[in-house]
Amino acid sequence: MYPSGVQTRGKDVLRWTIERTRRRLPRPPAQPIRGVAPDLAFLHGNRTQPAYTWIGHSSALLQMGGANLLLDPVFSRTASPFRYLGPRRHQPPGLMPEQLPHVDAVLLTHNHYDHLDRPSVRAVARQPGGAPRFYVPRGTETWFARNLPRVRGAVPYIEALDWDADTTLDAGQGRIALHFLPVQHWSNRTGFDRNASLWGSWALVHERFRFWYSGDLGYSHEPRRIGARFGAFDAAAIAIGAYEPRWFMRSQHVNPDEAVQVMLDVGAKLAIGVHWGTFSLTDEPLDQPPRDLERALDARGIERERFVVLKHGETMRFPAGDNRTHP
Fold first, then answer.
1. Which class for 23: exposed (0-12), middle (13-18), buried (19 or more C-beta within 10 A)?
2. What's the pLDDT tens digit per position in 92-151?
3. What is the CATH number of domain 37-317?
4. Cβ atoms of residues 103 and 305 within 8 Å
5. What is the pLDDT of residue 327?
6. Could you give the C-alpha distances from 243 to 26, 46, 282, 284, in angstroms and in order?
7. Which residues contact 54 (CB under 8 A, 6 or more apart)?
8. What's the 3-state SS for the chain?
9. For residue 257, which of 297, 227, 312, 205 has the smallest C-alpha distance?
């Protein structure tokens, strides 16, 4: 496990800052990054087909088992505690909170500002028809209890999970098992709470569809362990961006070649690349990860259709598999 998480030294942060300033990094995208209009009629009417809609960065709407699951929702203009300071959004969200179908559950991987955003969480909690359930890593439940608005006089349902813990969500087509699993990363919200809360990935298992969401991760043995435990996933969302310079980012973010290995390790039939194209966090241009991903797939002789990237607002629909018994 990772009892203390990834550690970075102050002198390494200073070295990185000096290098990227001297080299004027990151450079702008070589090509425009354009989104598409979301298929709202499908998203609001869908009750049966597994589907994944990319909102941007790591935020997505996952529809499976008749439920609407929102992953790491961030709709704000900055990935920062400040409205006008910090990494600014390059692309508008592919879906705005008011465009979402009724969200049944919000799943959080960790508390970094590009994954946990107070205005976004509050907007979703205020959705018509009642707040969703919030499933969060152990240690972040107090933040949610403090920051969620009361709905009908009560704080929305919050469930905190430890690594390798699981719970269930009753969906329209049976139950979805939610497994919170460790990966190599770290957490912090302020300068005084480093690794005080957990971080991880989610395995979401329904009798007709299995999905894995990597969250942020450096390469380690954990994806192999997850693959051995669950056997195979119909699809996975795997981070592919924020990986340069490697000497600094290797322990905390996979690059596209490592992301392909993660796909193989967990046994995903198909993968969607996330954590790119939205917030400029590291040294590579925002549009570099998809190009590096194609090169990594070609080098391994893997069809490009097996690991894809979406446009902001785009939906990928999946066929529901045969009935299976989940662990």
1. exposed
2. 999 999 999 999 999 999 999 999 999 999 999 999 999 999 999 999 999 999 999 987
3. 3.60.15.10
4. no
5. 41
6. 12, 35, 7, 7
7. 60, 94, 272, 274, 310, 311, 312, 313, 314
8. CCCCCCCCCHHHHHHHHHHHHHCCCCCCCCCCCCCCCCCHHHHHHCCCCCEEEEEECCEEEEEECCEEEEECCCCCCECCCCCCCCCEECCCCCCCHHHCCCCCEEECCCCCCCCCCHHHHHHHHCCCCCCCEEEEECCCHHHHHHHCCCECCECCCEEEECCCEEEEEEECCEEEEEEEECCECCCCCCCCCCCCCCCCEEEEEECCEEEEECCCCECCCHHHHHHHHHCCECEEEEECCCCCCHHHHCCCCCCHHHHHHHHHHHCECCEEEECCCCECCCCCCCCHHHHHHHHHHHHHCCCHHHEEECCCCCEEECCCCCCCCCC
9. 297
Lookup: tokens for 151: 């709905």
AA identity, residue 17: T
Residue corresponding to tokens 């949610």: 144
Return the half-sphere exposure (C-beta side, CA atoms, 13 A cut-off) of residue 45: 4
Residues of the chain with pLDDT under 50: 323-327
- Let me know: does 180 contact 137? Beta carbons within 8 Å: yes
Residue 121, φ and ψ in degrees, nearest 5 = -60, -40
Sheet holding 201-206, edge to edge: 165-171, 174-181, 201-206, 209-213, 235-239, 271-274, 307-309
Token code pair at residue 236: 């996975």
Structure tokens at 126: 């205020």
| Token pair for 295 | 């090169």
Q: Which two tokens stand for residue 41?
A: 């009629």
Domain boundaries defined on the chain: 37-317
- The answer to whether residues 279 and 1 touch, using CB atoms and an 8 Å cutoff, is no
Residue 58 vs residues 23, 33, 312: alpha-carbon distances, Å: 27, 16, 11
Chain centroid to Cα 99, Å, comes to: 19
Chain centre to alpha carbon of residue 69: 12
For CA atoms 279, 198, 201, 172, the dihedral sign is negative
Whole-prediction pTM: 0.95
Tokens linked to 107: 């799943």
